[in-house]
């Protein structure tokens, strides 16, 4: 995770080690290298600009006195700015004041929504909650089964429509908005404390998908709409996140596949570009490969 970016930043900082005083030229050289490392890691251009601008300003004005030498001071500033673009403080999941807490998942197909639904259910169950998983992804033929498998693994019930038969004789699973509404009734009757609604994704952003997600959002009035994004998506992260922000107005972000050979761009861009906090990270295919997102720990890993 972030291996290349980490290496690049570390070697940039090595060049500063042992310098008694940093000149403006030293700082500009360092900023240039940081900028290149971030761009190569697919971090969005406006984010790189803000980030490096802040570092330059702070490094130039940094106090020379104190316990840290100038090189260490630059590392400290970069660390603080990384934490800042990752969101500063971690933001806990919002729970409903009365009735079940409703969490809706949205994102592109293959982002890791269904896998995440199981992990989140498992995590919340571990906190004493009684989640219900809802299969409102009726687009992909296998999605409902996949959620059922995930639910079984997590030991959490899944609300899924019975397959019906259309006039043409095709098997059909019905309307996701209706399924979501029915699931809400079921959750109230059975007193589930949390409802996690998995929705359909497409390979690319499209208007129909967005409308469906927006309709489900209206129907279930979620406490959280979590935009699930594959960290490997690279430069597409910004356009995808922006489209989902306009389409469903998500309240938080989940980064998936952080275990992969991710360059880091999506992770480092999405908070700054959308203004929405990253709540969780998914780091593998197993139920436990899941963590609450802490900006300071993530920055620490990048600068490790
Ligand atoms: P969905 O289409 O958004 O519901 O995505 P899925 O949950 O079906 O995930 C797509 C693929 O990515 C599956 O093969 C998952 O096993 C895999 N996957 C999901 N999350 C992670 C993760 O954090 N790390 C890795 N390595 N694979 C993941």
Summarize the structure.
The protein is α/β, with parallel strands linked by helices and 304 residues long.
If you had to describe this structure to a student in words, what would you say it looks like?
There is one protein chain. The chain is an alpha/beta fold. Helix content is 48%, strand content 14%. The protein has eleven helices and ten strands. The chain has helices at 3-14, 24-40, 45-60, 70-85, 113-126, 143-154, 176-189, 207-220, 236-248, 265-274, 295-302, and strands at residues 101-106, 131-136, 158-159, 164-165, 171-172, 194-199, 224-230, 252-256, 278-282, 290-292. The strands form two sheets. It has an eight-stranded mixed beta sheet, with helices on both faces. Strands 4-5 form a two-stranded antiparallel sheet. Helix 4 crosses helix 11. The model has no long low-confidence stretch (mean pLDDT 91). The site of guanosine-5'-diphosphate has 18 residues, from helix 5.
């Amino acid at each position: 995770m972030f291996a290349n970016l980490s290496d690049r930043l570390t070697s940039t900082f090595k060049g500063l080690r042992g310098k008694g005083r940093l000149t403006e030229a030293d700082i500009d050289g360092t900023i240039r290298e940081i900028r290149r490392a971030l761009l190569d890691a697919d971090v969005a251009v406006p984010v790189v600009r803000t980030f490096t601008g802040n570092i330059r300003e702070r490094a130039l004005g940094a106090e020379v006195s104190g316990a840290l030498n100038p090189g260490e001071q630059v590392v400290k500033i970069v660390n603080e700015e990384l934490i800042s673009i990752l969101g500063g403080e971690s933001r806990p999941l919002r729970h409903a004041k009365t009735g079940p807490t409703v969490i809706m998942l949205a994102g592109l197909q293959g982002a890791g929504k269904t896998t995440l639904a199981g992990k989140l259910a498992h995590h919340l169950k571990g906190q004493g909650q009684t989640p219900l998983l809802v299969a409102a992804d009726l687009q992909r033929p296998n999605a409902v089964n996949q959620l059922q498998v995930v639910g079984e693994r997590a030991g959490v019930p899944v609300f899924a429509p019975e397959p019906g038969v259309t006039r043409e004789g095709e098997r059909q699973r019905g309307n996701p908005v209706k399924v979501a509404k029915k699931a809400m009734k079921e959750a109230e009757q059975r007193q589930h404390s949390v409802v996690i609604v998995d929705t359909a994704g497409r390979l690319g952003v499209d208007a129909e998908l967005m409308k469906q997600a927006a309709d489900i959002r209206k129907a279930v009035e979620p406490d959280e709409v979590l935009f699930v994004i594959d960290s490997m998506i690279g430069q597409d992260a910004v356009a995808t996140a922006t489209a989902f922000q306009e389409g469903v107005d998500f309240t938080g972000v989940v980064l998936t596949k952080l275990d992969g050979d991710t360059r880091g761009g999506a992770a480092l861009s999405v908070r700054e570009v959308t203004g929405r906090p990253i709540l969780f990270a998914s780091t593998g295919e197993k139920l436990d490969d899941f963590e609450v997102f802490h900006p300071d720990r993530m920055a620490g890993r990048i600068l490790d």
